[in-house]
Design a protein that fits this description.
Blueprint lengths: L10 E6 L4 H5 L7 E7 L6 E5 L2 E5 L1 H4 L3 E4 L1
Amino acid sequence: MNMIKIKRGRAYKIVSTPDDMLLKSLGLRKDTKLKLMTKQPFRGPLVVKIGSRNIALCRSIASKIKVEEV
C-alpha cells in the first residue's frame, strides 16, 4: 500500500521509494520503520516519525512511497 493509506498508532516498514537523494538523506530508505504522527487536513502533509525525527511529506511524494504493516 502507499503511505497515504497508513493509520496512526501502527508501525510500518518502507518497501520501496522513488530514487531521490533528498528522501534518502531524510532517512526514507527501504526497510526503514516509521509511524504516522498526523495527517493534516485539506490534503496537507503527512508527518511521520522515523527514529527520533519527525518528517513532513507532501501527499504527492507520500503516494509514491510503498509501505507494509509490521
